[in-house]
User: Which sequence fits this backbone?
């Protein structure tokens, strides 16, 4: 199953997009800016669960949503703290805050949206390698599927580890197995572990089975959805 995403607004600043060094930046721009005007309500780009609601000196008021595909979306420079508490279920399109101009990295009212592989949801304390360009990422998922409602905690990522070192990210409908905790994906797994806990002590065969079962459920769900169209 491919999770369905949407752009929060049509007014994107592609001239200063992801990776831009405009404005005298010392590091590449690691998000995508939307400019619908101050106080515009911001819709969630996909279904998920709130994993962070915090203040950042650079990014101002920030809300982070953890999505069932293992990705995170961060909504930055909000005019005020989001009303959603950590653990709250969010559906795609649901308002998560309003556009503001908070934080030292903002020079005008806009939404700075980030899509990341890690639970930080923004840029993980200057580790810019954990972000991905929201523009092509969202465009590739505009025709995906929303998860069933109400959103279930069991749909969120769970981390499984084998004593020998193999790790896996498994949800109810998606599973991925990795052979090493090192590298970009391994760091993503580690970050997810902090947010959602870890299951350990399983054998290699048991992990392989769990991953296969999750993917089989996801494929079956996708076929059911396709049959309803």
Assistant:
């Amino acid at each position: 199953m491919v999770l369905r995403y949407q752009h929060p607004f049509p007014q994107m600043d592609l001239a200063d997009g992801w990776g831009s060094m405009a404005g005298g930046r010392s590091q590449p721009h690691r998000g995508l800016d939307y400019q619908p005007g101050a106080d515009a309500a911001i819709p969630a780009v996909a279904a998920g669960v709130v994993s962070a609601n915090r203040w950042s000196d650079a990014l101002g008021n920030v809300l982070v949503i953890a999505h069932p595909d293992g990705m995170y979306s961060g909504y930055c420079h909000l005019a005020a703290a989001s009303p959603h508490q950590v653990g709250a279920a969010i559906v795609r399109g649901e308002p998560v805050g309003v556009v503001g101009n908070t934080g030292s990295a903002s020079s005008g009212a806009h939404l700075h949206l980030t899509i990341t592989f890690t639970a930080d949801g923004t840029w993980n304390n200057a580790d810019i390698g954990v972000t991905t360009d929201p523009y092509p990422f969202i465009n590739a998922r505009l025709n995906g599927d929303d998860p069933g409602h109400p959103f279930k905690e069991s749909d969120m990522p769970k981390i499984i580890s084998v004593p020998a070192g193999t790790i896996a990210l498994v949800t109810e409908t998606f599973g991925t197995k990795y052979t090493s905790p090192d590298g970009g994906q391994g760091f993503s797994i580690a970050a997810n572990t902090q947010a959602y806990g870890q299951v350990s002590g399983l054998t290699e065969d048991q992990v392989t089975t769990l991953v296969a079962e999750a993917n089989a459920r996801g494929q079956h769900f996708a076929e059911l959805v396709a049959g309803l169209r």
Remarks:
- DSSP finds three helices and 13 strands in the chain.
- The helical segments are 134-139, 183-196, 204-228.
